């Protein structure tokens, strides 16, 4: 108890001292999984992120919130270099995965993205069968054994809580699934490559409340084994599922803290205005 | 207050209009006339193309299948059986040696089409992949106009290029001087190659269109799973665009089948029943040109044979178009 308290104090002063608010994994334990130091981001000449210093803890959910256009998606996409495919983008500063600079010249982007998977706002099943969708990542990584692939597909679908719904129609087109199922399929597809980090860009924003609840349950399960960074517009969602929350505004990181802390007792005026709905 | 007055009039009377305007009855107006006229003009344009098609089919059938007496159609002079099973096509010979078996013309046509497909389809598809997935915007700005120039070259120039350049400077040195085979001055290979070059721009630009219409979100998902650019191109974009690519192939092949001038110059001579690409062949279209530009007796069997050949050609290309439409509708993926 005292130990946990000390750890939480180390990061932020506790809001009311109650142990119920301490995340299961204390954020200060161990080195951060991902860390950005003095990171800035440019689309051509337009700067989108200014000097971001942020640590993302292993096996926890970090939520990125903020008004539209604040740079939170840009930040998320820079963590697996997805922005590389947009022409004219540029990153300065450091982005470290397990202490290694991911923008350094000798980093292989393909293996980086295998370690840092991503789920998008719009579900994007490939126009292939459910099986082929999940097996896509392992196949391009060179896995050819049929039984091995079957094992991966089953494990990934079970992890994404989709197995029971689709186990009898793995050969059917993934396009025929419902919106919520498609999104869980995309999560399963991301899990199939065995990533360490999963980046989620508003994964539930296009879904109905029931499907959203399923995705949230799933995220809750997944954080036991994965580091999750999630961009969300829904502050209740951030409060429900994350340990840490970072508030972005016009390209700057305004505040980062334990979720409970940030929502009940923000240190910055801007954060307070945003979470109480006074702007944004 | 004006505001309260307005409110009152609305609540009591409702909106008021002059009596005439409130009637819903149709009345004469120039706008109606104009609308009707536009509709008829547009319908007339559509009708024109339908009428053209119908009259062409009418002519083909009355000249080849059945004609009212006293005229006779082609198939009333030559049996359908001979037409489809006879292996000689010798209408230019004297009466007793005349044979009308379309097989040599069909083989010739498909020999040209096959060679052009081997050249044109893969190259066109690879160019489409390059333009859609790999090329930088500035490179695309250069390549696309060049392709359009290639598409704009008159086909007779291609034919000239084949017989004056390809055959003597490429095909003869390789196949005759080096491999010791017999190469004819007019050969199927030269014609097939230039027809292949001709269909490249068509395959490239049609396939590029369908590949670019594959949503970017699919590419991003692919990259996020650790795909290389080649993985994304070959395993996501091409499969997603497959139906469109297939349709572009079939359209290009229809073009190969119908191509006339280049083949007539580069390959066409005697109607051989052969699959040897180094020999002279005769295709359906080049046969028609050959007869039309020569001296043919009006009303003779030779003249009527043109219509029978044209009818076969028409049926083949129509079937290709139907298949490509079926493929498109059958395999079209719906993106939301």
Provide a brief overview of the structure.
By secondary structure, chain A is of the alpha/beta class. Chain A has eleven helices and ten strands.
Q: How would you characterize this protein structure?
A:
Chain A is of the alpha/beta class. Chain A has a single domain (2-275), classed as Rossmann fold (3-Layer(aba) Sandwich), CATH 3.40.50.300. Chain A is 36% helix and 23% strand. Chain A has 11 helices and 10 strands. Chain A has a 6-stranded mixed beta sheet with strand order 6-7-8-3-9-10, with helices on both faces. Chain A is globular and about 55 Å long. Residues 1-27 of chain A have low confidence and may be disordered. Chain B is mainly alpha-helical and 336 residues long. Chain B folds into 2 domains: 30-64; 95-331, MetI-like (MetI-like fold), CATH 1.10.3720. Helices cover 72% and strands 0% of the residues of chain B. Chain B has helices at 2-13, 19-22, 30-64, 74-77, 80-85, 103-134, 137-152, 155-178, 188-212, 216-224, 229-240, 242-258, 261-266, 284-293, 301-331. In chain B, helix 3 packs across helix 15 and helix 6 runs parallel beside helix 9 (188-212). The radius of gyration of chain B is 29 Å and the shape is flat. The two termini of chain B are 53 Å apart. Chain A binds chain B through residues 80, 82, 85, 87, 110-111, 113-114, 117-118, 120, 122, 124, 126-128, 136-137, 140-141, 175, 186, 189-190, 193, and chain B through 136-137, 215, 217-228, 231, 235-236, 239-240, 333-334.
**Most residues in contact, chain pair and counts:** A-B, 25 and 22 residues
User: From the coordinates shown, what is the CATH architecture of chain A?
Assistant: 3-Layer(aba) Sandwich
- CATH homologous superfamily of the largest domain in chain B - what is it? MetI-like
Per DSSP, the total helix count of chain B is 15
- Characterize the biggest β-sheet of chain A: 6 strands, mixed
Number of domains of chain A: 1
Do you know the CATH topology of chain A?
Rossmann fold
Overall outline of chain A: globular
**Low-pLDDT ranges of chain A:** 1-27
The arrangement of helices and strands of chain A along the chain is HEEEHEEHEHHHHEHEHEEHH
Give the strand tally of chain A.
Answer: 10
């Amino acid at each position: 108890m005292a130990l946990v308290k000390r750890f939480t104090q180390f990061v932020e002063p506790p809001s009311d001292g109650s142990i119920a608010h301490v995340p299961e994994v204390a954020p200060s334990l161990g080195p951060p999984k991902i860390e950005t130091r003095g990171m800035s981001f440019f689309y051509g000449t337009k700067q989108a992120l200014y000097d971001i210093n942020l640590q993302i803890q292993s096996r926890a959910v970090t939520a990125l919130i903020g008004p539209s256009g604040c740079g939170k998606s840009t930040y998320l996409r820079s963590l697996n270099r997805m922005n590389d495919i947009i022409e004219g983008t540029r990153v300065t500063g450091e982005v470290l995965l397990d202490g290694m600079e991911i923008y350094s010249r000798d980093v292989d982007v393909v293996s980086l993205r295998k370690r840092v998977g991503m789920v998008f706002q719009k579900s994007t099943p490939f126009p292939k069968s459910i099986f082929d969708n999940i097996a896509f990542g392992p196949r391009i990584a060179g896995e050819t054994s049929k039984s091995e692939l079957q094992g991966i597909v089953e494990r990934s679908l079970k992890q994404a809580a989709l197995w029971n719904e689709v186990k009898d129609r793995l050969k059917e087109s993934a396009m025929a699934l419902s919106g919520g199922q498609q999104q869980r399929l995309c999560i399963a597809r991301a899990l199939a490559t065995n990533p360490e980090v999963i980046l989620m860009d508003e994964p539930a924003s296009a879904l109905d409340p029931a499907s959203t609840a399923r995705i949230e349950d799933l995220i809750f399960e997944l954080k036991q084994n994965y580091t999750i960074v999630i961009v969300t517009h829904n502050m209740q969602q951030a409060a429900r599922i994350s340990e840490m929350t970072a508030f972005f505004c016009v390209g700057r990181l305004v505040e980062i803290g334990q979720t409970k802390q940030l929502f009940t007792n923000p240190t910055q005026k801007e954060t307070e205005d945003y979470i109480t709905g006074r702007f944004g | 207050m004006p505001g309260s007055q307005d409110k009152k009039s609305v609540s009591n009377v409702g909106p008021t209009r002059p009596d005439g305007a409130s009637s819903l009855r149709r009345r004469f107006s120039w706008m109606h006339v104009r609308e009707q006229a536009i509709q008829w003009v547009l319908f007339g344009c559509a009708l024109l193309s339908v009428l053209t098609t119908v009259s062409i089919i009418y002519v083909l059938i009355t000249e080849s299948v059945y004609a009212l007496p006293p005229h006779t159609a082609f198939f009333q002079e030559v049996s359908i059986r001979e037409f489809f099973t006879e292996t000689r096509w010798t209408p230019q010979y004297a009466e007793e040696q005349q044979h009308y078996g379309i097989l040599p013309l069909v083989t010739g046509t498909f020999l040209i089409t096959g060679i052009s497909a081997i050249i044109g389809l893969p190259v066109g598809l690879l160019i489409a992949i390059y333009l859609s997935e790999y090329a930088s915007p500035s490179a695309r700005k250069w390549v696309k106009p060049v392709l359009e120039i290639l598409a704009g070259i008159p086909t007779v120039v291609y034919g000239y290029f084949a017989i004056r350049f390809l055959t003597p400077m490429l095909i003869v040195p390789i196949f005759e001087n080096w491999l010791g085979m017999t190469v004819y001055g007019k050969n199927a290979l030269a014609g097939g190659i230039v027809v292949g070059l001709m269909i490249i721009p068509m395959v490239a630009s049609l396939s590029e269109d369908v590949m670019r219409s594959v949503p970017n979100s699919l590419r991003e998902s692919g990259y996020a799973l650790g795909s290389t650019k080649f993985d994304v191109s070959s395993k996501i974009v091409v499969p997603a665009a497959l139906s469109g690519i297939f349709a572009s192939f079939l359209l290009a092949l229809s073009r190969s089948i119908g191509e006339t001038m280049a083949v007539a110059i580069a390959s066409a001579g005697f109607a051989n029943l052969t699959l040897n690409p180094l020999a002279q062949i005769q295709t359906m279209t080049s046969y028609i040109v050959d007869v039309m530009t020569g001296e043919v007796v009006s009303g003779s069997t030779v003249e009527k044979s043109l219509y029978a050949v044209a009818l076969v050609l028409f049926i083949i290309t129509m079937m290709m178009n139907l298949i490509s439409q079926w493929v498109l509708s059958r395999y079209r993926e719906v993106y939301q």
